[in-house]
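Record C-x(9)-C motif containing 4 homolog (S. cerevisiae), 64 aa.
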Amino acid sequence: MPQKDPCQKQACAIQKCLQANKYLESLCEEVIRDMRRCCEAQGGNSVCCSGFKDPKPTEDKSDT
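=>
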């Protein structure tokens, strides 16, 4: 029997939250943070994390 993905619970929570909130990511920030924490803790041992990338730090776009 295949082992359950360690971050599957968080991945499902994101989908449920997005569906309930008309896919507005800003309303699901907490569950997205939970997923990032899980992916960091698993260090690549989660298939669910394979397509879940941390956002790149935004560069300062001001022209000062």
